[in-house]
Specification:
This protein has no helices and 12 strands. The protein is mainly beta. The protein has one domain. Strands 1, 2, 3, 4, 5, 6, 7, 8, 9, 10, 11 and 12 form a 12-stranded parallel β-sheet that branches.
Length: 123
């Protein structure tokens, strides 16, 4: 199953009304519409719905936030803060998309993409 943004395969869902407390290691995609406390890592994509509440540090390739996050976010490729999102924590990512209406309290560290350019030297 593809997630709503088409960012990858969605193979784990924490539904509305569900609470998870602990460390969660995910392969593939994760959708959170319930509550998560602890730490989430290893996912290709973490998508937090409008009803999702996260009190955890998040680490994935792509992180899409539509709900509430209290914790640090580290994404290797991209973080997207949707209009209903509220984030209290620091962000580290290469690309950041912030929709109008999103609330972000914290520091943002933008990682520069390493460019492997060859220098041409004339002898």
């Amino acid at each position: 199953m593809k997630d709503k943004k088409g960012e990858g395969d969605l193979n784990t869902i924490i539904g509305k009304g569900t609470t998870f407390d602990g460390n969660l290691m995910i392969q593939g995609g994760l959708r959170i519409d319930g509550t998560v406390k602890g730490k989430v890592s290893g996912a290709d994509t973490i998508s937090i719905g409008e009803d999702g509440k996260v009190e955890a540090d998040l680490d994935a390739k792509v992180i899409i936030v539509g709900g509430k996050v209290m914790g640090n976010i580290a994404a290797k490729e991209k973080v997207e803060l949707q209009s209903n999102s509220i984030i209290n924590g620091d962000l580290t990512t290469r690309n950041l998309v912030v929709e109008e209406g999103a609330v972000f309290h914290g520091k943002c560290n933008m990682k520069e993409e390493k460019l492997n350019q060859k220098k041409n030297v004339d002898n």
